[in-house]
Design a protein that fits this description.
Shape: globular
Low-confidence stretches: 96-139
Helix content: 40-55%
Order of helices and strands: HHHHHHHHHHHHHEHHEEHEHHHEEH
Number of strands: 6
Largest sheet: 3 strands, antiparallel
Structural class: mainly alpha
Strand order of the largest sheet: 1-3-2
Distance between the termini: 66 Å
Number of helices: 20
Mean pLDDT: 84
Length: 384
């Protein structure tokens, strides 16, 4: 007798995806839907959850070698081919071309071969560092582990390399977990969240080495975490900021919010814990078994300079209102009444050019890129 319950669940997965429901864009939901086309008449949700746990992210799973996928319990050749097909398509046809140009087919390769960027570009006098293709996460999807505390502890010890392969190898060797699979998974978490541009950028590595064990580093790592995990930003906006008056929020309220947003998710508890773990690791809140406590925070000059030049990366003149309205800066729980003072402190230390407050015109002018301002901070011995 056919499993009508499972068939109905699969149809609901497809209906939610085609209707554009936000919950259908989570990594787990996308992978579960994808696997239904390769594995008939079986509940594939536990398999999707386990694969993401083993590989750290959907992107890492898709990038895994064919033979490695086939060795995973529950994955046979058909499933592995489907996953590698999706990976090949996203790498070769993913980026949008400007205008209405016709897509130029890539150089012919075997199905699972990745084209080396060096072969597609004209020779250059200076070799560019390798940049990995980073697949952005959809919307506000769930995550099960924060691993931010571990990232903050190990970042100051990273090797002097932009290669994420080298960084991952280092992390797998140095993370304190006994299980190799756990170290591999957590290494993927850390590299994806701390280095979202696809390479281990020098500004973060330099900042981490200069300010280990400082709140400035916790701020900067939490900021990078926010960039990679939009759900964390949403929880802060929807639950934390509105409760600044009381300065308290129950863990149960966070779990209820997740259950409302992801009604069929089976990892609500894990995700709720991961959200709180990230907030505490970043020094944003204090937490006990039932609640988190928080208030607006003071603004360290070093981390404020890092975040400011990340959010406003091009040297130039900016309206101060854009600073007040910036989602990431608001999510840092920095005291908004101290933002202008923090700007003046950056100016006084020569990290930005000037601040103009004439009548209704309020502007600040930057003069550095992120790399430039971090170099100034580190070489100038600024306090964290």
């Amino acid at each position: 007798m056919p499993d009508t319950g499972n068939k109905g669940h699969r149809q609901r997965l497809r209906d939610r995806f085609t209707s554009g429901e936000e919950s259908s864009r989570s990594e787990e939901a996308l992978l579960e839907l994808l696997l239904t086309y390769a594995i008939p008449q079986k509940d594939v949700q536990p398999l999707a959850e386990r694969l993401l746990s083993d590989h750290g992210s959907l992107s890492s799973l898709l990038e895994a070698p064919m033979e490695s996928l086939c060795q995973s319990d529950g994955i046979k050749e058909n499933s592995a081919i489907l996953l590698k097909l999706v990976d090949w398509i996203r790498q070769h046809y993913g980026p949008k071309r400007p205008g209405k140009e016709t897509l130029k087919p890539p150089r012919q390769t075997t199905l699972f071969e990745t084209i080396s960027p060096e072969l597609e570009q004209a020779p250059s006098a200076v070799a560019e560092p390798r940049r990995e293709k980073v697949i952005q996460r959809y919307g506000t999807e769930m995550f099960g582990k924060a691993v931010l505390k571990e990232a903050i502890q190990i970042l100051p010890k990273l090797p002097d390399s932009e290669s994420l392969d080298e960084i991952r190898s280092f992390l797998r060797a140095k993370l304190h977990f006994s299980a190799e699979q756990t170290r591999k998974r957590y290494a993927n978490y850390i590299t994806r969240r701390m280095f979202p541009n696809g390479y281990a950028d020098a500004p973060l590595r330099s900042f981490a080495k200069a300010f280990p064990d400082a709140q400035g580093l916790r701020d900067v790592c939490f900021y990078r975490f926010l960039l990679s995990e939009p759900l964390e930003v949403e929880v802060i906006e929807d639950l934390v900021l509105p409760n600044l008056g009381t300065g308290r929020l129950s863990r149960e309220r966070i779990r209820k919010r997740l259950a409302e947003k992801f009604p069929e998710a089976k990892s609500i508890v894990d995700c709720g814990k991961a959200i709180v773990d990230a907030l505490t690791a970043g020094g944003i809140v204090k937490a006990d078994r039932t609640k988190i406590s928080f208030a607006y925070r003071e603004i360290p000059v070093t981390s404020f300079a890092f975040v400011l030049h990340s959010e406003f990366p091009e040297p130039g003149m900016y309206d101060i209102r854009k600073l007040d309205e910036n989602r990431m800066i608001r999510a840092m729980l920095w005291n908004p009444e101290r933002l202008l003072h923090a700007l003046y402190e950056l100016r006084n230390q020569g990290l930005i050019s000037k601040i103009s407050e004439i009548d209704n015109i309020r502007q600040f002018t930057t003069k550095h890129t992120l790399a430039g301002v971090v170099e100034q901070i580190v070489s100038g011995g600024k306090k964290p």
